[in-house]
Amino acid sequence: MAARHHATIFGFAVFSFACPLNSLTFLGAPVLHRDRPVEALSAMLDAMAAHPTLPKLLCANDIATDGAVLPALVEALARRGVRAVEIDRRMRAKLEAPGDGQAYLNRSLSSKRRAELRRQRKKLGEHGRLTHVSHRTPAEVVPAFQEFLELEAAGWKGRRRKGGRAIQNSRSLANFARTMIAGLAQDSCAGIDALRLDGRPVAMNVWLRSGRGAFGWKMTYDEVYAKWSPGTLLIEDMTNSFLSDGCISFIDSCNRRDATALAQIWTERRGIVDLVIDARRGGSASGRLAAATEYLYRRARGMMRRTYLTARSRWRR
Questions:
Q1: β-sheet bridge partners, residue 19
Q2: What is the pLDDT of residue 10?
Q3: Predicted pLDDT at 312
Q4: Distance CA 131, CA 128 (A)
Q5: What is the CB-side half-sphere exposure of residue 127 using CA atoms within 13 A?
Q6: Which of 26, 227, 228, 246 yields a CA-CA distance of 20 to 30 A from 39?
Q7: What is the dihedral angle through the alpha carbons of 62, 156, 206, 264, rounded to the nearest 10 degrees?
Q8: Residue 286's closest CA among 88, 63, 82?
Q9: Contact criterion met (CB below 8 Å) for 181 and 145
């Protein structure tokens, strides 16, 4: 699905579709016919191009570079005499190493880092009984997800002055998320792992599943215990659990980029691209202008963010 967006370029209004649809989605690949993906994509683009009121531009964000979707999209566009414009490319952490979880952690983490995690686990355990709990059945997942929402809202994501990105800050988004997770749990396609201290969650990870792939959809932790890295300790436990399971071939972290603590544990990477696509056969001047503008805007935004982070780091020193 895609949402309709508009922007103003040199005084002209430019309308486009943008996918994924909302902030709860971390892959923008459409649902396609398994045996005829090129034909399915071609039909979608034809429908956009032919409709009198639909936008002709598509911002296809978070498209994985592995798998069948991107090659099918490239071929479908080639048949139309047009190419997608790549406006961003990045890598995010991925776990893809079937076998023994502890052996994997021994390879991915230095002995110093493993010792530090053992120290943090011991310190956190001094505050109560520390347990890793995997919620799998619908009866377990639904109440655990409510715990997740409350824990996330209690942290920095819940503070509206900092952007307020917690799911529970939006009633419509929270209702959608509850319905989605409950429905997926019924099909064994959603689960929640929690690190609990005397039964209270100090870190929680909501993951989704499709076939032999899993996706680390959302994670949160109790900031009271932040100095003992409960989120990292949970990821360590989950790595052991998933690799011992044998039913999962890979886990996509769903992180924006690979500059995260999780990326230090999961050493594999998944390529992600954002594209601007003109649905019209042969493309158009307005489509090329819109793509160029979006490309430059993202480069400028990235430069400003890097400058800000560098300045903040120097100020803190």
A1: 60
A2: 41
A3: 67
A4: 10
A5: 15
A6: 26
A7: 70
A8: 82
A9: yes
| One-character DSSP codes across 10-76 | TTEEEEEEEES-STT----PPP--SS-HHHHHHHHHHHHHH-SSS-SEEEEEEEESSSSHHHHHHHH
- pTM for the structure as a whole: 0.84
Q: What is the DSSP string of the chain?
A: --EEEEEEETTEEEEEEEES-STT----PPP--SS-HHHHHHHHHHHHHH-SSS-SEEEEEEEESSSSHHHHHHHHHHHTT--PEEEEEEEEEEE---S-HHHHHHHHS-HHHHHHHHHHHHHHHTTS-EEEEEE-SHHHHHHHHHHHHHHHHHSGGG-GGGT---GGGSHHHHHHHHHHHHHHHHTT-EEEEEEEETTEEEEEEEEEEETTEEEEEEEEE-GGGGGG-HHHHHHHHHHHHHHHHSS-SEEE---SSS-STGGGT--EEEEEEEEEEE-STT--HHHHHHHHHHHHHHHHHHHHHHHHHHHHHHHH-
The series of mean pLDDT values per 10 residues for the chain, 317 residues long, is 48 62 83 92 94 89 92 95 91 84 86 94 96 96 98 89 81 95 96 97 96 93 95 93 82 86 90 93 83 77 73 66
Cα 170 to Cα 217: distance, rounded to the nearest angstrom: 18
Q: What integer pLDDT is reported at residue 298 of this predicted model?
A: 74
Structure tokens at 105: 């952690």
Closest C-alpha to 274, from 256, 259, 251: 256
